[in-house]
Amino acid sequence: MNDHAAVKAALRAMRIETPSWAYGNSGTRFKVFAQAGVPRNAYEKVADAAMVHRLTGVAPSVALHIPWDRVDDFADLTRFAADQGIALGAINPNVFQENDYKLGSVCNPDARVRRKAIDHLLECVDIMDVTGSSVLSLWFADGTNYAGQDSIAVRQDRLADALREVYDRLGADQRMLVEYKFFEPHFYTMDVPDWGTSFAHCMALGDKAQVLVDTGHHAPGTNIEFLVTVLLRFGKLGGFHFNSRNYADDDLMVGAADPFQLFRIAHELVRADVIRPDSGVEYMLDQCHNLEAKVPALVRSVLNVQEAVAKALLVDADALATAQQAGDVLAAHGVLMDAFATDVRPLLAELREEMGIDPDPIAAYHASGYQRKIESERADGQQAGWGA
Ligand code: AOS
Ligand code: ZN
Ligand code: ZN
Ligand code: ZN
Q1: pLDDT digits (tens, 9 = 90+) for 141-174
Q2: Which ligand is nearest to the CA of 241?
Q3: List of domains in the chain
């Protein structure tokens, strides 16, 4: 697409969802460094997410994590979000942070624990009914550490049974996205270690079950754009958790470690025409900002996604098809590299001016006084963080 008006229209329509947990304190198992101004509850996380949307214009929803974001009245939180100009997005259940889940949640050998986990997932669908969320985002920490610890096969049966029960509870406009991860917290088997396992379960379940690709959840060297393309082919790409990885599930800012990988993924998404908000592919961030300030880090992340997508939109599709058909390897590769090498920042600045927002959202954040405001308003009380 070389028509700049069309490129800008596509970028303007794109929607990127930020995660509530990225606004709270986070760290490693060694230390959580608390930051001034961090939200103390779900309302303040929503307020920060709304700030990211005001600055970028393309982040109009925030994913919630239950129970970290549990409130007495989800209808009230939904109204609060709407007043702030955003919506509540994907609901992320938590079936990993209780002692009961030591040997797993929905795959646990103990039927009582499985019941408890499934009941929590069903409760999260009840919450979706109130918040208007259409996506249940499932990630299971289930797995084993040692050969023989539990039956791989029986655990798959338990997983299938649980997914079926939750699937059958979904409303007409609700979907479940099943996330996979090759290791951590378990180091021998994970019960959903890869896209193939997620895909197989989603195929068995039906149209309302799709795969969630977290870009940080693959073995080094995995060709993510390839598996994304295969999932798209079968209508099973439900969405992304974008972030960067250097080593494991690093949860660094998307586009920071490997902007070229993000561009290659974006190229397949543009080719499949799924950047549109009604495409059924959800663009969500799943990050933790251990060192950097959270709100500007999320702004930067949104901009990084926009830059990758803008470059992908600039790929000369006709020239690419011609070179591919001719078997001209270098010319075809050159078409992609030309787009990747383009500085799209002026185009994005122009777009933001047309949208009536500051062309430099990070500078706008620093000029806004918002950081000072949250640091003074949120000086007391318990800050939100992993597990709170
Ligand atoms: C865990 O590794 C997964 O990426 C989850 O999607 C996510 O980080 C967690 O559920 C936080 O809510
Ligand atoms: Zn994730
Ligand atoms: Zn993860
Ligand atoms: Zn991650």
Answers
A1: 999 999 999 999 999 999 999 999 999 999 999 9
A2: 2
A3: 4-377 (3.20.20.150)
Determine contact, residues 241/213, Cβ cutoff 8 Å: yes
CA of residue 248 to ligand 3 center, whole Å: 9
Distance separating alpha carbons of residues 68 and 94, to the nearest angstrom: 8
SS3 180: coil
Expressed in angstroms and rounded, the spacing between residue 43 Cα and the centre of ligand 4 is 24
Question: Which of 176, 254, 286, when mutated, tests ligand 1's pocket best, judged by the most ligand atoms within 8 Å of its CB?
Answer: 286
The structure's pTM equals 0.97
Task: Tell which residue, 140, 214, 136, 204, has the closest CA to residue 169.
Answer: 136
| Residue 160, CB-side half-sphere exposure with 13 Å CA sphere | 14
Query: In 3-state terms, what secondary structure has residue 171?
Result: coil
Q: Among candidates 68, 105, 93, 284, which has minimal Cα distance to 186?
A: 105
- DSSP assignment of 243-302: -B-SSSS--BPTTTS-HHHHHHHHHHHHHTT--SGGGS-EEEE----SSS-HHHHHHHHH
**Ligand 3 center from residue 242 Cα (angstroms):** 10
Q: 358: left (phi > 0), else alpha (psi -120 to 50), else beta?
A: beta
The answer, yes or no, to whether any atom of ligand 1 lies below 6 A from the CB of 21, is yes
Which ligand ends up closest to the CA of 250?
A: 4
Task: Give the position, in ligand 1's atom list, of the atom nearest the Cα of 212.
Answer: 6
Question: Is 0.90 exceeded by the ipTM?
Answer: yes
